[in-house]
## 1
Amino acid sequence: MPPKRKRGATVKAASSKAKSIKASGGDEDGDEDNAADDDTTHAGVGGPKKKKMKMKNDEQNQQPTPTTKEDETTTKTEHTCTPPPPPKTCPYLSFVNRPLLDFDFEKRCSVSFAKENCYCCLTCGHFFAGRGPKTPAYTHALERENHFVFMHLENGRAFCLPDNYEIFDASLEDVRKVLFPRFTSEEIKRLEKEAIWSKALDGTEYLVGVVGLNRVENAKGVNSIVQSLARVEKLRAHFLSASLIRSDGNNNNKNENDTLQSLCQRIWNKHNFRGHTSPDSFVRKLRKQIKLAHPEKLETDIDNLFNDPFATLRHFLTFVVPKKYVDELFRGELLMLNQKNKTQPFVFVPLKLPDAPLFRDVMEKNAIPQVALAELLKPFALKTAPEYLILAFVNRFSKNQFTKEVSKNPTIVTFPVKNLKIQASSAAGSNSNSNPFSYDLLANVDSAGKATVKHVDGNWYETNDLFVNEVLAQQVTLGETYVQIYKRVASP
Ligand SMILES: [Zn+2]
């Protein structure tokens, strides 16, 4: 028999305005599900203990997790009593508390740390494994008042626990749209042309595609590079269109939120409950991958890597962005005019800033040197021009090999926001009047890790972790540029 509800819950539920389209699930189904979830029990004897969902240092805390089975794959078990049929409507939908729902973080049971078969309690937002008797989710529903509605994190199916019947209700669709951002090809095309404003639950408006990213410790470079790469239309379209391959709710599918693809989808999701999102699980995964591949690397080395936008960019181009897109979008070939016309393939063009002056000038101030980008590009001609040109000012930061101190080159680079000209190799060294390649700026990351990006409507936004501000085009060129992404607009 299903356990009895707490008194308070029933009284409140009677007044709820929950609306339901249809209810389903038979006696036998309900019992099968219970049996299935018996296998996924992790709480153990004595009941589950509450733990904070956003775990820090979870690598150390992680316990071995028992294997789990999906509810649907188990065989029928015997039962001696017949539970009553599930109600036609779920009376507890009014306890769904959307402001507490956050699917950006690692999807792991907050009690057993299991990753499989997890549900989100839609009242408190915590994640729990299983839904059969003795599972953390089931126990949570019994222990807490009004925590009855749960959503499966991999397929979006909703259940009322501990009664264990499936809820079919259109009012939960908005939650699914946050859990599984999806984009049709029409929507992707619209996002390419139109600035779309959306409203967060707290009433604030946010610009879809230019949302703030939570600050994750020692990952300053990740936020700025993610914001910059999200401007590359073809890469973005690839990430957004991949959302349609996902499960339609009938079959389980992993919904990883720790990939660049998932982060990109959340940045461009107009159904978000908040005007910002978190790269937390993505950064965790990046760090784990490095530790696996290079166990000898120190934590501080990994911190340095992801704090530095240029080092992060190189890591992304090697390990994160699909190789097909790196080759198709960023790969080009340079003709080195000052090196006997040697050719050099590249995915970014490394540019060297002139050395900063060592001595103070007569005004007792360090003169801040300036250099034009065109000057730095003079020794190069493009043999193969990529669609998106990445420029990196590689000696913006340098490390003294004896003292290990990092120093910054303060040189200001002057650059155009539109029509950056780069000569074609066919015209190099000759008096040919052929037109150069022409590029428009899409994103500019400065030495402080702020990324200023051009939105689809042509407006510029400065992003600094959670903060996003509109700026004028002429403000983009101020500051110490470090990494830039341009888009080709004209070829010879
Ligand atoms: Zn709860």
## 2
Amino acid sequence: MIISMIAAVSENNIIGQDNKLAWNLPTDTAYYKNTIQDKTIIMGRKTAESPDMFFSKKRNILITRKGNYQKENFEVTSGLEEALKLPEENEEVFITGGGEIYKMGMEIADKLYITRVHTVIEGDTSFPEIKPELWKMISERKIEADEKNEYSFSFLIYERK
Ligand SMILES: NC(=O)c1ccc[n+]([C@@H]2O[C@H](COP(=O)([O-])OP(=O)(O)OC[C@H]3O[C@@H](n4cnc5c(N)ncnc54)[C@H](OP(=O)(O)O)[C@@H]3O)[C@@H](O)[C@H]2O)c1
């Protein structure tokens, strides 16, 4: 199994505010949907309840400490370790947030799909530091701001060294 994480992250590592994204970037949203729509995705309960949440057509798994929690279209698990027992052995699984789950995922992920949003912004949820001694960038593509996308941003892919 390949464990990947996907996130849009500001220059100062902010990923959200008030359980929503901190920007409107339709080109990044399209990239995100295209990347995860046929994959198994794993997320925290708060991200699953965010209005910005997108479903996978394949499999949606959420993590909660609430014993009898249920949500339509989701398989409910009690932790990341339990969630990672569900996918097939040979698939690429995406951890899709939020801050609490990325923090745990950073210890075990093989790959990071990061949209680096070129702004410094305020927010209440962060992505962990991507330490250059642990991660190698293997792909970079910059998209300029335009009438639809309020900031410029770069699609980055990292692999663990
Ligand atoms: N920019 C991006 O790419 C991106 C992506 C995703 C999310 N976000 C943003 O991130 C924010 C949400 O992140 P968040 O950190 O507040 O919440 P989160 O990581 O989505 O979910 C946290 C919840 O996960 C469950 N959980 C966490 N650790 C657990 C453990 N060890 N065992 C069992 N359950 C555990 C708990 O659920 P219970 O409380 O139910 O027990 C906890 O409240 C929102 O603003 C969202 O928009 C941004």
